[in-house]
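testing teh design pipeline on a random one, pls ignore if ur not involved
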């Protein structure tokens, strides 16, 4: 459990950090609080079969929109869409789908800005 004293509360308030059961669920600086949220076009695809080829995976995801990059790393991959709405729809439509005998795990990647990550780690 995170012990939030008065000085920590002031930092939390100034950085717009929200806690839900002691888990940081949003982190933005005061300056960024008035900016729209960052929307990711990058998907993580887990549980890929060993036989998976990039072109086959890319074809599967292109059903949802224009794929601008598709990279396979062992049994997982990253697929980048041109449009964030397409990425979100693909994640919802393909998570749990059977692909070449494996049940895919598809998630929208979370974008963490380095200076915000350092700030959040200093608080914990």
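output:
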């Amino acid at each position: 459990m995170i012990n939030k004293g008065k000085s920590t509360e002031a930092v939390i308030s100034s950085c717009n950090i929200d806690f839900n059961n002691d888990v940081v669920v949003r982190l933005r600086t005061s300056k960024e609080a008035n900016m729209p949220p960052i929307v990711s076009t990058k998907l993580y695809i887990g549980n890929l079969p060993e036989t998976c080829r990039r072109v086959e995976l890319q074809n599967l995801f292109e059903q949802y929109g224009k794929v601008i990059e598709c990279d396979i790393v062992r049994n997982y991959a990253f697929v980048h869409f041109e449009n964030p709405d397409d990425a979100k729809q693909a994640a919802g439509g393909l998570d749990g789908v059977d692909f070449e005998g494996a049940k895919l795990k598809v998630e929208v990647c979370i974008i963490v800005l380095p200076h915000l990550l350092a700030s959040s780690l200093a608080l914990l």
